[in-house]
Amino acid sequence: PDVKDAVLAAADIFRANGASVETFKMPIVKYAIPAYYIIACAEACSNLSRYDGIKYGYSSPNADTLMETYVKTRSEGFGMEVKRRIMLGNFVLSSGYYDAYYNKALKAKKLIQNAFYDAFKKYDMLLGPVAPTTALKIGESLSDPLKMYLGDIYTVMINIAGMPSMSVPCGFDKDNMPIGMQIIGKPFEEAEIMSAAKAFENVTDFHNKLPDLG
């Protein structure tokens, strides 16, 4: 509720300063998270396959044979999240699952991109939250990857659509943690996004405040 209230309040500030503001929904973006992580993991799997400890990347000093070099280098050199993404990437690119997952994700990506282009036929910019919650405590989400992925729900849709956006401070929650909104614009119109962000900062002082964490 704090994040939603802060972003709506920011929209009211834009409205009070002459902007035309209205609520807009884009149902297709609910597919952004699964599509993004399927595509991103597939790309990570492909790109990181070259890190074998011979020509690229970290090389384990504890290996005696070539096979041990491969195994230990990748076991020691990659963190748990990277390993998780490599395994998921291998799965979605494997025979029998390529069309079921990867190709569908690419189609979803195109539909999301088209939805943004359609929106920009009517609107100059879109405004929304950066994240559904404020910052989590250190280590809080590491045991729950799904929760961690859902924290990206409002930003991966921008990445997958290839649209420029800018994060701007717009308030604080009940625990005095900072809240960010994002201003999303058309491709190659970053100057307009920055102008809108500057206009918001000219009439607010959130960007000058630091959270009082006691």
From TrEMBL:
<dbReference type="GO" id="GO:0016740">
    <property type="term" value="F:transferase activity"/>
</dbReference>
<dbReference type="Pfam" id="PF01425">
    <property type="entry name" value="Amidase"/>
</dbReference>
<dbReference type="InterPro" id="IPR000120">
    <property type="entry name" value="Amidase"/>
</dbReference>
<feature type="domain" description="Amidase">
    <location>
        <begin position="1"/>
        <end position="193"/>
    </location>
</feature>
<dbReference type="InterPro" id="IPR023631">
    <property type="entry name" value="Amidase_dom"/>
</dbReference>
<protein>
    <submittedName>
        <fullName>Aspartyl/glutamyl-tRNA(Asn/Gln) amidotransferase subunit A</fullName>
    </submittedName>
</protein>
<dbReference type="InterPro" id="IPR036928">
    <property type="entry name" value="AS_sf"/>
</dbReference>
<keyword id="KW-0808">Transferase</keyword>
